[in-house]
Each structure stands twice: as C-alpha cells, then as structure tokens.
Amino acid sequence: MAKRATTTPVAKRHFDLLAEEGYRPKTTRSENSHSIVRFKSEGTVFLLFVDEDDESFFHLALAYELGDGVADMAGAVSRANDLNADYKAVKVTVHPAERSVRFHVEAFLDDLATLPVIQRSIGALRDAARAFFEPARPADRLDA
Q1: Rounded CA gap, 118 and 97, in Å?
Q2: pLDDT of residue 29
Q3: How many CB atoms are located within 10 Å of the residue 26 CB?
Q4: CB of 46 closer than 8 Å to CB of 108
Q5: Cβ(62)–Cβ(129) under 8 Å?
Q6: Over pLDDT 70: what percentage of the chain?
Q7: Rg, the chain, Cα only
Q8: Are 67 and 77 in contact (CB under 8 A)?
Q9: Which pLDDT value is given to residue 4?
Q10: Which one in 26, 70, 94, 113 has a CA-CA gap of 20 to 30 Å to 11?
Q11: Burial classification of residue 53, based on how many CB atoms lie within 10 Å of its CB (0-12 exposed, 13-18 middle, 19 or more buried)
Q12: What pLDDT digit, counting tens, does each position of 92-131 carry?
C-alpha cells in the first residue's frame, strides 16, 4: 500500500519536469520508502520509481489487472517471455497470484531522465502493452 510522501530531492526534480510539461504528477511513497511519481499520459497511469540513493537509475512502469479476462496464465507468461525477447529496453512480467501484468523500462542514465527519454519510454511501454493484449497472429499460434 502506497503512503503519502514527502517529496525527496530526486523525486521533486522528476515531479517538476513532468509538471512543467502538463502531466499533473502526484508523489507517493512505497512500502520500502521509495518515492513513486505517478502521472497520466493520454489516460494511462504511469509510475516513475525513484531511488534517492541511485539517481542515475531510471524506472518507469505501467501495470494492468488481468481480472478474469485472461484464463490461461501460462499463455500470458509465455507471451511476456516472447515480448521480452522482442522489445528493446522493456521488461514484461506476469503476476499470476495478483492476476496482473506489468511493463517496465529500466536504465542507468548519466543524469536525471530528460523529457525525450520519458516520452520514448512511454511509447515503448505502450507498444509492449498493445502487443501483449492484441490477439495472437497465425505465426504466433504455430509457436504455441
């Protein structure tokens, strides 16, 4: 459960950058006391995890609850593995117990993430999520 956060210096810099661009971010704190900057882009919620001890680490994520719509969790894990092999910089994880799928972009940067890095990461996360949820193409079905 995320708690209300006092904004830390690195989180504040991310917050300010996103706010300047009109994203209307909010800051919370995770159970392990890391700051999370939460913001929406085109109706989708993104989470920017901030590690104050390693400001060069960039971690942007997107999560979806699968609910009862995905009956074949083994198939979902297989699809995630395929996407991990196909997509640059995006990590897809399926959490059967929580019936959720998460998409992550993680990187070590020389400096704080810039707006172009954040926007490119948003695009990569959206593309991977779209690919995860689109119906399997005939060639994909042959691999199953």
Answers
A1: 30
A2: 84
A3: 15
A4: no
A5: yes
A6: 88
A7: 16
A8: no
A9: 47
A10: 94
A11: exposed
A12: 999 998 999 999 999 999 988 999 999 999 999 999 999 9
